User: What shape does this take?
Amino acid sequence: MALRNDCFALPSGVVWTPVAEALADLRARLSPVTGVETVDLYAADGRVLARDVASPVSLPPADNAAVDGYALAHASLSPEGEQRLAVLPGRSAAGAPYPDAVGPGAAVRILTGAVMPTGTDSVVMDEDVDPGDGAIRFGSGLKPGANRRRAGEDIRAGDVALRAGTRLGPAQVARLASVGIARVAVRTPLRVAVLSTGDELAEPGDALAPGHVYDANRAMLLSLARSQGVAVLDRGRIPDDPQAVSRALREAAGDADAVVVSGGASGGDEDHVARELSRMGAMALWRIAMKPGRPLALGQIDGVPVFGLPGNPVAAFVCFLIFVRPALHALAGADWPEPAGYPLTARFSARKKPGRSEFLRGLADGAGGVGKFRSDGSGLVGGLIWSDGLIALEHGRGAVEEGETVRFLPYAGFGLR
Ligand code: AMP
Ligand code: MG
Assistant: This one.
């Protein structure tokens, strides 16, 4: 399903869009573009659930023992003093329930996970019991329902086990398996094409001519995209030539569900991505009030969204995490991801004016504090290596003094290694 052609049109009159507003706009305008297929449970890891899954069973299916011990009726116990109950022959084991009812004054051997025999409601654990011949003795104070797991306490038959849009990880496949789901409807993987633009870009492994730099963004953006569970297409490096750029973008859009391109996104002489996108159709240069990140070019070619990121590697990295990542999730049919963050104490001071969001490279010190990289330079890949997350300074915030609280977004919370 293609997106509406004006899906990236900007609200008129807005000059610098706050990050939160730009994200809310993206969220409102993007919808899933992927198909649906049914896959085996064991092949579903990492995929996005296409439909709600209701549980066909209750879990546990029946009341059962949480420990090894003796099942009994709590009503058989006296309020005080030593308890003595006759032990019936036989036992209830996991997978092999006790076939008969247990009457008052009696107990039966039970093992962890075994169904509670009819007539019993509590389990006295082995460690608390004095076993004798044909009887057990133990102290008073066993609570009604002790060491019993209730039927349906994990999930009830008919309840939603997992919602559409959930990305399946270890806990989610365990949930599906636990309720007996063998095949699930998932989204087909989103195909994301990645390309770099710039006459100055050289391929790693090639000799570096004067004035050239190696293409760092393509490897980085391919890795970033893969980390979000999408299928990537590497569409290489494109020179700063209008025809080459428009052809490459058109081809990428023909083969993928979304295109991520770095470089040439602002309004300069050689910024062909922005110009060619606007020539080809709906395109909006989002002047987003954030640092790092010069204008983000959002366009569409035949309904396929194109994300034009700044060329500076750190700016491209941050723009990907903040804007492209949630957009890809929405296109893939997954829930809109909010970055996972928490407050830490700034071990630095930083100048800032209210009116834009800033994302600094931060390193948590493991003692409640966070430091920032020595430089804000958005071309320094070293800052990405040094840091383990972003320090997010809110739109309205002014300067940061050492000791103040700042919000830290660990890279792991974005799904990065
Ligand atoms: P641009 O956004 O094209 O004006 O590029 C801004 C800066 O980022 C310039 O210094 C470029 O050389 C650099 N740059 C652009 N693309 C890449 C890339 N793929 N890898 C590394 N640096 C890049
Ligand atoms: Mg360039």
Residues 196, 198, 200-201, 213, 215-218, 262-265, 310-313, 379 surround adenosine monophosphate (ligand 1) (CB under 6 Å). The two ends are 32 Å apart (CA to CA). The chain has a mean pLDDT of 94.
